[in-house]
Design brief:
NADH Oxidase, globular, 187 residues, binds flavin mononucleotide, alpha+beta, 4 strands
């Protein structure tokens, strides 16, 4: 790539990407219907392999279910993700591998339901940031237990969770990332 990676040009989307941080403490206020609607649009318009959209997104606002999810850690102390219980909304990306069967299936990696789910959830996190909502990805959870809490269809897979809510006063941790020299390979 001949262009410099240290461009000074402004990008609104890059600002939003940089402003997103893992918010682990939320105000009790529910996420407004309007904002939930925009988050739903964010996942809806995400790209997916062959446009199969092999997923559904559970918007969980039931406090009892959120408490149960917060306790459903795979191993270690339940307190690890106890902060989840402060979130007024948890979104679960539920992948459906069989929807991916396709005439080209022999040459297509069946794991795309996971990739597609991650793309859609990242879209959601960025729209949430733009709306002033805090989010945090949650990958440390007991898949089967959370599947039971959400009563998902047999064969479906809870891929990833994301907490959403209006941030309580919490200073975001300073972001650290690898340098571009470590990250980008020019060939
Ligand atoms: C796939 C994935 C899973 C994650 N799982 C958890 C989790 O279970 N609990 C948690 O507190 N943070 C979790 N995180 C948040 C990361 O720790 C966080 O994104 C990372 O430290 C960078 O910080 P930042 O999000 O503030 O930029 C997860 C992030 C990703 C992308």
């Amino acid at each position: 790539m001949a262009t410099t990676h240290n461009s000074t040009q402004n990008s609104n989307i890059l600002e939003i990407i940089k402003n997103r941080y893992s918010c682990r403490k939320y105000l009790a206020n529910p996420v407004s219907q309007e904002h939930q609607g925009l988050l739903a649009q964010a996942v809806r318009w995400a790209p997916s392999a062959c446009n199969r959209q092999p997923y559904s997104f559970h918007f969980i606002t039931d406090g009892n279910k959120i408490q149960a999810i917060a306790r459903a850690v795979p191993t270690g102390p339940e307190s690890i993700n106890a902060w989840i219980s402060t979130a007024p909304l948890v979104v679960a990306a539920v992948g459906r591998p069989e929807l991916f069967w396709h005439k080209l299936t022999q040459v297509i990696d069946k794991d795309y339901h996971r990739t597609d789910s991650a793309i859609a959830m990242d879209h959601l996190s960025l729209v949430a940031t733009e709306l002033g909502l805090g989010t945090c990805w949650v990958g440390w959870f007991h898949r089967r237990k959370v599947g039971q809490i959400l009563d998902i269809t047999r064969g479906d897979e809870v891929i990833i969770l994301m907490t959403v809510g209006y941030p309580d006063k919490e200073a975001p941790r300073k972001k650290t990332r690898k340098g571009l020299d470590e990250l980008i390979v020019n060939k």
